[in-house]
Amino acid sequence: MASKPTRSETTHERIVEVAARTLRRNGYGGVGVADVMKQAGLTHGGFYAHFESRDALLAEAIKRAGRDSAAVMNRRMDTSRERGQSPFRALVEGYLSETHLNGVEDGCVVAALGSEMPRQSPVLLELSAERVRSLIEMIRGALPENGTPEQAMVIASTMVGTLQLARTLGGNTQGKAMLTATRSALLSQYDSA
Q1: Angle at 17 between CA 16 and CA 20, to 5 degrees
Q2: Could you tell me if 39 and 22 are in contact, meaning their C-beta atoms sit under 8 angstroms apart?
Q3: Phi and psi for 27 in degrees, rounded to 5?
């Protein structure tokens, strides 16, 4: 039986949750310690009781954002499997959905931060690279008949790039059309269901 989290642990998790949303919404440079603490309902002074530095907070935020978005996609794929449907279809349709288009705060950290990742500190860069590798592995596991690593890389690149470009176009007809076209192309090429 798991023990109930302490007040400090609960507060720490609340800070990380706020930071993960802020990170996806505003990028690395848009995560200010004072702002995150305020959004978490805390004072700026309490920050160092939980984190050594802003980079330590960002590191936990990247991990949290990755876990949260992976959990959503895994649930979607598991539900699809239980219904005898294609987990790959569920993954593609969920990732390239209007909800994900408009939900940068709760969506994939790779799509939200992809162009910023290479310019981060070595620790943050490695955590970002791990998020990319995790996305590729999730896609590979969803592909029919054990897709190849190369196929998973192409699909990951296609999905992330499509989502980024569609967000640039906006939640309008053009952005939605980009999602629809890519979903259709990926499913016709890789989904056997």
Answers
A1: 80
A2: yes
A3: 80, 175
Helix (H), strand (E) at residue 66: helix 54-82
175-182 long-range Cβ contacts below 8 angstroms, 24+ apart: 175/101, 176/98, 176/101, 179/96, 179/97, 179/98, 179/101, 182/96, 182/158
Query: Tokens 């008949």 sit at which residue?
Result: 145
* 106: helix, strand or coil: coil
* Whole-structure pTM value: 0.91
The encoded tokens of residue 29 equal 């440079």
User: What is the distance of C-alpha 153 from the center of its chain?
Assistant: 16
d(CA 28, CA 42): 21
Q: What is the pLDDT of residue 90?
A: 95
15-33 confidence digits (pLDDT tens):
999 999 999 999 999 999 9
* Tokens matching residue 149: 């690593």
Q: What is the pLDDT of residues 139-156, one digit of tens each?
A: 999 998 868 999 999 999
The CATH architecture assigned to 7-190 reads: Orthogonal Bundle (1.10)
Q: Find the helix or strand (DSSP H, E) in which 145 lies.
A: none
The alpha-carbon radius of gyration of the chain (Å, integer) is 18
Q: Kindly state the percentage of the chain with pLDDT values over 70.
A: 97
